[in-house]
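Record format v2
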Amino acid sequence: MSELKGACIIGQSGGPTSVINTSVLGAIETALDCPSITRVLGAAHGIRGVLDDQLLDIDKEDREELKLLRYTPSSALGSCRYKLADPDVDDTDYKRILEIFKKYDVRYFFYNGGNDSMDTCNKISKFMMKSGYDCRVMGIPKTIDNDLFGTDHCPGYASASKYIATSCMEIYQDARVYDTGMVCVVEIMGRHAGWLTAAAGLATAQGAGPDLIYLPETDFDMDKFMADVKKVYAEKGNCLVAVSEGIHYADGTFVSEAKTSATDGFGHAQLGGLAAMLADKIKSELGVKVRGIELSLLQRCAAHCASKTDVDESYMSGKAAVENAVAGKTDYMPGFKCTRDENGYKCEIELLPLSQVANTEKKVPREWINAEGNGVTQAFIDYAMPLIAGDNVGPKENGLPRFAKLKKIKAEA
Amino acid sequence: MSELKGACIIGQSGGPTSVINTSVLGAIETALDCPSITRVLGAAHGIRGVLDDQLLDIDKEDREELKLLRYTPSSALGSCRYKLADPDVDDTDYKRILEIFKKYDVRYFFYNGGNDSMDTCNKISKFMMKSGYDCRVMGIPKTIDNDLFGTDHCPGYASASKYIATSCMEIYQDARVYDTGMVCVVEIMGRHAGWLTAAAGLATAQGAGPDLIYLPETDFDMDKFMADVKKVYAEKGNCLVAVSEGIHYADGTFVSEAKTSATDGFGHAQLGGLAAMLADKIKSELGVKVRGIELSLLQRCAAHCASKTDVDESYMSGKAAVENAVAGKTDYMPGFKCTRDENGYKCEIELLPLSQVANTEKKVPREWINAEGNGVTQAFIDYAMPLIAGDNVGPKENGLPRFAKLKKIKAEA
């Protein structure tokens, strides 16, 4: 494969995570030090920044300040939830993207996101090939949802899991402090896949976590749920419950559906308010003290509780995308291939074709959920435990985190 | 003052904090090493444990395990929200307490809690004096609410503040990530005093915090609030708002009041759901994307984000209670007297009479709130900033906190 010289664009898309900036840092630092890459551009708000010709001049950022991206949550370049049309139906956006690529002599495109973003990346990749424009396109995975197909796990998942498990351990201590009992329901993100909610089971494995865990991989039955809660409360005098926002009845209706009819930019129903709703129901039926807690945005932005393993792997992922592209690969996403055995945990990069990862959701295997559908098995714990190892301790200023402050200078062609 | 020999009881009461166990550890370790104290007993669930003769044999706990209380949130001995009657009206409980004190030869009583608990402590102290039973009674302050009178601040406040400010900084990063704007409302604890919500201003002082902050110390005006939000959103394209759960209209009605009519054991209205309610209102009136986040229990139990300063001071507070009691003092609570000047921050113990601290709420001074009533001033920042300094890093096990596991052996007389 001959050397391809030109600029690169790095963009972020979809919901942010605690470590998506670390993936971008891995890509940026590798690109800045790479002779084939003549210029490093950031897309302001993902593909929208490309379409709107809003590119950031990363070469003008201070290298030391960039390093703080390792401790800075959310998407430093800005994100979007813009869905590209099917190019066979409407190729307006794709032509515009090609125009911008040509304008800045962009020969490398790195897109950092989840399912929908890998779809965007895949479509752009295929369009560039079809157009005969020589450009190497690589996805860089991120999603707290952990639902990307083909990879052992996704950057961002472990840090969210560590926060969820830590918070559940702390809530467990708090929610059973009184002589009078309480049922506490914690609502965790995850529309269709229960990976995040399952992570609450890591707290249970430490002896201080939810008594009951409900994932969207199994159908929810309200009567069984109430009976489960009643049984645990009768035995222990307290009950801590973790539910995924996406739990649904057998007919597919979300349990939370009555609460809101808003949708996000991709047409997904915006869920929420489920914990409060279930807590109210428990209170009225069982007559016990209740509390509903929604972890909300905190679970995806709590960089102060990030997993060192996750941070290191996220960096490796961004770095691998750039290195492989420069070495001639295109149309891939660096995934993780992991081993967990008597020698411990090991994680290696494995390139996955974009078309394979785009739009395919990976769910928690049924056998990692207990028979009753109200907890996780040891197999899940063995899978997730190594991912949350280590703390990612960043610099502090006045007792608070010191986040990266980028100049974000608009690039000129 | 002659030496007083006998057992001590240490109890915890009211809502727990991240560091209330550190205060108890300070008291326990000092008591265990003190020749005048013949036996260290823990009250299971505060004064209820005394009334029910449910005392724990702290002498039988492992000293190394006890040390983990420094990293363990919530009240390890158990808490209660039991209000003692006015002894002039009904002295049944007091007579029972005296009976238990005599049964175990209790000569020292340490009660760790907030306003209501200091009231309990004060009443017991006065009853013992009146009864001529020689027993030294000391309160040990704790409350994330920071509303105890006479002390510069309260153990527990700083750690909750550090969590609130850190989380607000993280939410700030996350809630402005998209090209489309958002208004995010964060609901923070504090019924009558706005100390905790004010702490969100520490994030703002770091350049990444709420644009608007509303405390219960000023009357809330919904029209002014909507105008404030609209103005910030128009200027910045995003708006982060922090509100105290206790914000109220000029007539005293809680803004959240319509949401719930439940009350806790002390007859206080149980608040909540305010963030979602305000977010909904903003959405319907301004037509913008919104999110309501309630920090809920997390803010008082997030030991993983505790302030080292708070932890050290909490320990000092428990230690001071025991040392002063053994030295002959009774009927006091060790408060903090602090200086903040060119030599930095200094905190010393100052004994405060129990009758003075009981049931008097300290509020945020009006001059620490800006003229518009939607933010805090530099004077507040100068006050709070030193309190959140330092991280309290505890041992981990499988990537998660290792909390103290006490044996909790029931004491026999």
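The domain at 6-143+303-359+390-401 of chain B is CATH 3.40.50.450 (Rossmann fold).
The longest helix of chain B spans residues 308-326.
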